[in-house]
Amino acid sequence: MDKVLIIDDNTSIISALSLLLSLHDIQTLAAITPQAGLQLLRENPDISLVIQDMNFTADTTSGEEGRALFFALREIQPDIPVILLTAWTQLEMAVELVKAGAADYVGKPWDDNKLIATIKNLLELYDLQQQQRQSQSRAQQAREQLQQQFELQGIVYRSQGVQTLLEMATQVAHSDVPVLITGPNGAGKEKIADIVQANSSVKDGPYIKVNVGALPEELMEAELFGAEAGAYTGAGNKVRQGRFEAADGGTLFLDEIGELSASGQVKLLRVLQTGEFQRLGSSQTRKVRVRVISATNSNLQEMIADGSFRQDLFYRLNVIELKLPALCDRPEDILPLARGFLAKTGKQLSAPAQQCLMRYRWPGNVRELQNVMQRAAVLTQGEIVEETTLALPEDSPLKAPEHSFEPSRDLLEQTLANCNGVIAQAARELGLSRQALYRRLDKYGIPY
After folding, report:
1. Which end of the chain, N or C, is surrounded by fewer C-beta atoms within 10 Å?
2. Same structural domain, 108 and 199
3. Domain coverage including residue 358
4. pLDDT digits (tens, 9 = 90+) for 378-409
5. Inter-residue contact 160 to 139 (CB < 8 Å)
6. By three-state DSSP, how is residue 118 classified?
7. How many CA atoms lie within 13 A of 197 on its CB side?
8. Which of 105, 49, 99 shows the shortest CA–CA distance to 73?
């Protein structure tokens, strides 16, 4: 049951409000002095809303007592919604306090239906905010716990999608089963492979990386499996050790695995099944013990359907699949990543620049963001990177519509810091009204 605190020196008003709220299954606590009300709030952290008068001393109409009480309430519970009970003589003070974060003001005498509607809306919003804060706190604790338990290779993220991915990656890392990492170009698949390797049972063994897509088709098999002297044109008279031999006792990361040739797929399947292979131009069977991590931005199921990728190899590679979402599907990660790329330069992003980063759809994903930040750092002479320096396409078809912009917690906190906590200035920087900014600060539990 929701609990509301009523602070008013008029016991008749307390009785009327208590009766009205009880008819709607809302529990009330009451105090006739500000001091008593503050003490009740300290003793009852489950209070979800406060209704307070503006004057408590006879013949006092300035509203200063109510103003002092409001700020004292916010010191105890910064995010608790407060409704001001006011006469028309204190209207100016009530409007000032609403600008400072009060939820609403209600004139005396009030309309029961309107007041109850306001109270229910505020209680519902407060409950949602509390749930969001608890969820954010749990997510933060989960991130910290994961960082303490595993080597995460300095990965920067805030999104739950990446958190879930990392939990699975670290869980399967210690086994020796093949792992397939899927996701768009530039999303960070190699970083996920690094994390799997760093937490594996062969983390102290060799770690060999091969970009299959960058290998000429005629050299692909020789590069992976080795070649005897003279096995192919241009091979020379030296034996060539392949990447599988080099990775024996460790990990082999095969990026862009979808580019592997048909004959290479046959040999890779055999290695995965038996650990055995033959160098190009040799009949001698060699045996290795290698943990294979592969990655692709291709749709291997479609390639299987058109006959360009072996289905049996897919099932061998896809024992564990780690799907890395595109950056536009995890916008919570954009600003932490951007600030991470700027960290060594000592530069910071202006609020408009942060908004610009959040609006853009990042078709090139994390790699594109890194390039943009590196360029902006070089071109920025001062300490603040401005929106114009980012030079992101204004008319890109991938750009999100303006109305979809919603400032993240990171952006709110950074803007407040840049504005030294001045709400009016921060609101202007973000393109919000002060009340809209207050609502968002309350939503995320950000003190102000």
Report:
1. N
2. no
3. 328-444
4. 999 999 999 999 999 864 444 443 334 567 77
5. yes
6. helix
7. 26
8. 49
CA-only gyration radius of the chain, Å: 31
- The total of other beta-carbon atoms located within 10 Å of residue 115's CB is 18
Token pair listed for 447: 């003190």
pLDDT (tens digit, 9 = 90+) per residue, 290-343?
A: 999 999 999 999 999 999 999 999 999 999 999 999 999 999 999 999 999 999
* Whether residue 335 sits in one domain with residue 321: no
What's the CA gap between 314 and 292, in Å, rounded? 13
167 neighbors 88 (Cβ within 8 angstroms): no
Task: Identify whether residues 297 and 383 lie together within a single domain.
Answer: no
CB of 371 closer than 8 Å to CB of 390: no
Task: State the burial class of residue 377 (Cβ atoms within 10 Å of its Cβ: 0-12, 13-18, 19+).
Answer: middle
Distance CA 327, CA 59 (A): 61
Domain count across the chain: 3
HSE at residue 381, side-chain half, CA atoms within 13 A, is: 0
Measured CA distances, 34 to 6, 17, 52, 56, 170 (Å): 10, 17, 9, 8, 53
| Burial of 153: CB neighbours in 10 Å, binned 0-12, 13-18, 19+ | middle
The torsion angles phi and psi of 3, rounded to 5 degrees, stand at -125, 130
Q: Tell how far CA 100 is from the center of its chain.
A: 29
What percent of the chain lies above the pLDDT cut of 90? 62
What helix, strand, coil percent values describe the chain, rounded to 5? 50, 15, 35
CATH (domain of 75) = 3.40.50.2300
User: Residue 409 carries which side chain, given as an amino acid letter?
Assistant: R
The angle that helices 423-430 and 351-359 make with each other, rounded to 10 degrees, is 40
pLDDT per position as a tens digit, 128-156 = 888 878 888 888 899 999 999 999 999 99
Side-chain half-sphere CA neighbours of 116 within 13 A: 14
